[in-house]
Specification:
The protein has helices at residues 37-50, 62-66, 72-88, 105-115, 120-124, 127-137, 146-152, 162-165, 167-176, 190-207, 250-258, 275-287, 290-301, 307-332, 336-365; strands spanning 24-30, 55-61, 96-100. Helix 3 (72-88) packs across helix 14 and helix 4 runs parallel beside helix 15 (336-365). It is mainly alpha-helical. The structure holds adenosine-5'-triphosphate and magnesium ion (MG). Adenosine-5'-triphosphate is lined by residues 29-30, 32, 38-39, 42-43, 185-186, 188-189, 225-227, 235-239.
């Protein structure tokens, strides 16, 4: 049986493994569109902060993007765009390995092998699968009957594809193929990361080996972040249409923020804060800092708040973060020669690590030459 454990607490104060080598950091972002503030604060900013001290490897998850069936041309553009956005946000190709997931065929083979140790039931129970399956089938209810709906569904135009189901297997392989120590991700990915640990433990125990280690999220001692959307919803997401993108121009960004969902405003002192307004405070904490948020929270508590003022300030502070990055994206993204050189180098180095792991995994599983 698998043992259920909480996330292991690796010593996050040291960037070195017991053998003196640097700890390995691995993370990726799906090429499903432009990067937004959720990606930035949940993931990318952590990547940049870790690049000096760790053996860090970041990829563009184009195979993961396929699970939601993108248009081929858009997929290709998005891979390039995300690479440019990685670089524009401050990732240095001399300090990190940057690669495209589909350039590493070893990942696909190990995904097949790892699937033999993954249960359909546990995959069907993951929150993000349920959400995406509901979307694919056009189900609006939150009911837990989704498994029945999937199996009973006879409409081939509204199917839930198997790649979507096995997304956590692929994610586990992305991480385990590098024997990564840390996987800096946002809060929404923590359940997948727990599955990665579970699959690794299961592999170890099935074959009686001590082969895979248990990777953990990395938050510089803080909590994992979930950046909310501007539509009052819980999560800003590329597929949700509620994002502030790093590439947004000034006018677009201001317009989006001014249109963000709020409520009628407090009429009594110290009223509870509604979710959409709490979301704006959360965003403000990230881009403006605590003093500014405290000022507006106080104004909320004594009913003097004007949401228009809060939004103006929020837009201003968001622009301070995004505009310099936007400028660098525009400078880099059409330099095909530069971009392709970076991922070519990244693929060569990654394939060396990946080939070694795959060879060992095949050995352990009993796939040997006659
Ligand atoms: P999609 O909607 O296509 O799944 P996404 O916006 O959720 O896209 P991903 O590529 O799935 O982005 O995630 C990339 C990284 O960004 C992950 O580490 C994820 O945890 C993080 N991330 C995404 N959205 C948020 C968010 N709203 N808050 C914090 N982190 C986030
Ligand atoms: Mg996502």
């Amino acid at each position: 049986m698998d043992s259920e454990k909480t996330a292991p607490s690796a010593d996050q104060n040291s960037n070195l493994r017991p053998d003196g080598s640097k700890k390995v950091v691995l993370s990726g972002i799906r090429s499903t569109g432009n990067l937004h503030l959720g990606n930035y604060y949940g993931a990318l900013q952590k990547f940049v902060k870790m690049q000096d001290d760790y053996d860090s490897r970041y990829f563009i998850a184009d195979l993961h993007a396929l699970t939601t069936n993108p248009d081929p041309k858009a997929l290709h553009e998005s891979v390039k765009q995300i690479l440019a956005e990685y670089l524009a946000a401050g990732l240095d190709p001399d300090k990190n390995i940057l690669y495209v997931q589909s350039d590493i065929p070893e990942i696909s083979e190990m995904y097949l092998l790892m699937n033999m140790h993954v249960g359909i039931g546990e995959l069907m129970r993951t929150a993000s699968f349920k959400d995406k399956a509901r979307k694919a089938l056009g189900i609006t209810s939150e009911s837990d009957e989704i498994e029945k709906e999937i199996i009973g569904n006879q409409n081939n135009n509204a199917r839930v594809n198997a790649g979507l189901l096995t997304y956590p297997t692929l994610m586990a392989v992305d991480i385990l193929i590098h024997h990564a120590d840390y996987v800096p991700v946002g809060k929404d990915q923590e359940q997948h990361l727990e599955l990665t640990r579970r699959f690794g433990r299961r592999f170890n125990s099935f074959y009686g080996v001590d082969y895979f280690k248990e990777p953990v999220n990395f938050n510089f001692g803080g909590e994992a972040i979930k950046v909310p959307g501007l539509d009052g919803s819980g999560k800003m997401g590329k597929s949700e249409g509620n994002c502030i993108y790093l590439i947004d121009d000034e006018k677009t960004l201001r317009k989006k923020v001014m249109r963000a969902v709020t409520d009628a405003g407090p009429t009594e002192p110290n009223s509870p804060v509604s979710q959409p307004v709490e979301n704006l405070f959360t965003l403000m904490d990230l881009v403006s800092g605590k003093d500014t948020t405290d000022h507006f929270r106080k104004a909320y508590a004594d009913c003097s708040i004007r949401y228009g003022d809060l939004k103006k300030q929020l837009a201003e502070d968001m622009l301070n973060v995004t505009l310099p990055i936007r400028q660098r994206i525009l400078d880099i993204r059409d330099n095909d020669e530069y971009l392709s050189k970076i991922v070519k180098q990244g693929a060569e180095r990654t394939r060396e690590y990946a080939a070694k792991t795959l060879k060992e995994v095949r050995e352990i599983m009993g796939i040997r030459k006659i």
